[in-house]
Sequence to fold (136 residues):
Amino acid sequence: MRVAIHPIVLGVDRCYVIQGEKAIMIDSGAPKQVKAFTKAMESLSLKPEDIKLIVLTHAHWDHIGSAKEIKDITGAKLALHRLEKDWLETPLPPLPPGVTAWGRILAKILAMSMPSVHIPATNVDIVLGDEDFPLT
Fold:
Protein backbone atom coordinates (compact mmCIF):
# COMPACT_ATOMS: atom_id res chain seq x y z
CA MET A 1 0.00 0.00 0.00
CA ARG A 2 1.32 3.41 -0.98
CA VAL A 3 1.04 6.22 1.57
CA ALA A 4 1.25 9.87 0.54
CA ILE A 5 1.60 12.85 2.87
CA HIS A 6 0.23 16.10 1.47
CA PRO A 7 1.03 19.34 3.33
CA ILE A 8 -1.61 22.03 2.91
CA VAL A 9 -1.46 25.61 4.18
CA LEU A 10 -4.52 26.64 6.16
CA GLY A 11 -3.80 30.08 7.53
CA VAL A 12 -0.56 30.45 9.44
CA ASP A 13 0.02 26.70 9.78
CA ARG A 14 0.54 23.66 7.64
CA CYS A 15 -1.86 20.81 8.04
CA TYR A 16 -1.38 17.39 6.53
CA VAL A 17 -3.56 14.97 4.63
CA ILE A 18 -2.19 11.45 4.93
CA GLN A 19 -3.55 9.32 2.14
CA GLY A 20 -3.38 5.53 2.26
CA GLU A 21 -6.26 3.08 2.21
CA LYS A 22 -8.20 5.91 3.82
CA ALA A 23 -7.31 9.57 4.28
CA ILE A 24 -6.76 11.31 7.60
CA MET A 25 -6.06 14.94 8.29
CA ILE A 26 -3.68 16.32 10.91
CA ASP A 27 -4.90 19.65 12.35
CA SER A 28 -7.45 22.00 10.79
CA GLY A 29 -5.66 25.33 10.53
CA ALA A 30 -6.73 28.80 11.58
CA PRO A 31 -10.37 29.94 11.55
CA LYS A 32 -12.17 30.51 8.24
CA GLN A 33 -9.92 28.27 6.14
CA VAL A 34 -12.58 25.97 4.69
CA LYS A 35 -12.26 27.49 1.19
CA ALA A 36 -8.49 26.95 1.24
CA PHE A 37 -9.15 23.39 2.40
CA THR A 38 -11.57 22.60 -0.43
CA LYS A 39 -9.21 24.18 -2.97
CA ALA A 40 -6.29 22.10 -1.63
CA MET A 41 -8.41 18.93 -1.79
CA GLU A 42 -9.32 19.71 -5.41
CA SER A 43 -5.65 20.17 -6.30
CA LEU A 44 -4.94 16.74 -4.75
CA SER A 45 -7.83 15.17 -6.72
CA LEU A 46 -9.50 14.24 -3.43
CA LYS A 47 -13.05 14.86 -2.29
CA PRO A 48 -13.61 16.33 1.19
CA GLU A 49 -15.55 13.22 2.18
CA ASP A 50 -12.41 11.14 1.52
CA ILE A 51 -11.16 12.40 4.90
CA LYS A 52 -12.35 9.90 7.52
CA LEU A 53 -10.51 11.17 10.61
CA ILE A 54 -9.21 14.56 11.74
CA VAL A 55 -6.54 14.37 14.45
CA LEU A 56 -5.87 17.64 16.25
CA THR A 57 -2.38 17.70 17.71
CA HIS A 58 -3.28 20.35 20.27
CA ALA A 59 -5.95 22.95 20.83
CA HIS A 60 -4.24 26.22 19.96
CA TRP A 61 -6.47 28.49 17.86
CA ASP A 62 -4.33 28.05 14.74
CA HIS A 63 -4.70 24.25 14.87
CA ILE A 64 -8.42 23.96 15.73
CA GLY A 65 -9.83 27.10 14.08
CA SER A 66 -11.48 25.40 11.09
CA ALA A 67 -12.19 22.05 12.77
CA LYS A 68 -15.98 22.44 12.86
CA GLU A 69 -16.35 23.51 9.23
CA ILE A 70 -13.96 20.85 7.92
CA LYS A 71 -15.64 18.20 10.10
CA ASP A 72 -19.03 19.27 8.74
CA ILE A 73 -18.07 19.04 5.06
CA THR A 74 -16.04 15.84 5.39
CA GLY A 75 -18.21 13.93 7.82
CA ALA A 76 -14.96 12.82 9.48
CA LYS A 77 -14.61 11.91 13.13
CA LEU A 78 -12.60 14.37 15.18
CA ALA A 79 -9.93 13.26 17.68
CA LEU A 80 -8.36 15.42 20.39
CA HIS A 81 -6.61 14.79 23.72
CA ARG A 82 -8.87 14.62 26.76
CA LEU A 83 -7.10 17.53 28.49
CA GLU A 84 -7.97 19.90 25.62
CA LYS A 85 -11.37 18.50 24.61
CA ASP A 86 -13.25 21.31 26.35
CA TRP A 87 -11.22 23.91 24.47
CA LEU A 88 -12.93 22.87 21.23
CA GLU A 89 -16.34 22.11 22.67
CA THR A 90 -16.81 25.55 24.23
CA PRO A 91 -17.33 28.71 22.19
CA LEU A 92 -14.54 30.62 23.93
CA PRO A 93 -11.47 28.41 24.21
CA PRO A 94 -8.84 29.54 26.69
CA LEU A 95 -5.54 30.91 25.51
CA PRO A 96 -2.74 28.74 26.88
CA PRO A 97 -0.11 30.61 28.90
CA GLY A 98 3.36 30.88 27.49
CA VAL A 99 6.03 28.61 28.92
CA THR A 100 9.12 30.64 28.02
CA ALA A 101 9.64 34.40 28.33
CA TRP A 102 9.00 34.78 24.58
CA GLY A 103 5.92 32.55 24.87
CA ARG A 104 4.49 34.69 27.70
CA ILE A 105 5.03 37.86 25.66
CA LEU A 106 3.38 36.29 22.62
CA ALA A 107 0.48 35.03 24.77
CA LYS A 108 -0.16 38.57 26.02
CA ILE A 109 -0.13 39.95 22.48
CA LEU A 110 -2.47 37.20 21.30
CA ALA A 111 -4.79 37.77 24.28
CA MET A 112 -5.41 41.29 23.01
CA SER A 113 -6.42 40.03 19.55
CA MET A 114 -8.29 36.86 20.62
CA PRO A 115 -11.65 38.60 21.11
CA SER A 116 -11.70 39.10 17.32
CA VAL A 117 -10.92 35.42 16.65
CA HIS A 118 -14.00 33.19 16.51
CA ILE A 119 -13.53 29.44 16.77
CA PRO A 120 -16.79 27.59 16.20
CA ALA A 121 -17.37 24.97 18.88
CA THR A 122 -17.88 21.35 17.87
CA ASN A 123 -18.01 17.95 19.54
CA VAL A 124 -14.94 15.78 19.85
CA ASP A 125 -15.84 12.28 18.65
CA ILE A 126 -12.72 10.45 19.84
CA VAL A 127 -11.23 11.53 23.15
CA LEU A 128 -7.58 10.57 23.25
CA GLY A 129 -5.54 9.77 26.32
CA ASP A 130 -1.86 9.03 26.59
CA GLU A 131 -2.13 5.48 25.29
CA ASP A 132 -1.62 4.34 21.69
CA PHE A 133 -4.41 5.01 19.19
CA PRO A 134 -4.70 3.19 15.85
CA LEU A 135 -5.26 5.50 12.89
CA THR A 136 -7.03 2.87 10.78
The longest strand covers residues 4-10. Helices lie at 34-43, 61-64, 67-74, 85-89, 101-113. The CA atoms of residues 32 and 66 lie 6 Å apart. The chain has a mean pLDDT of 89.
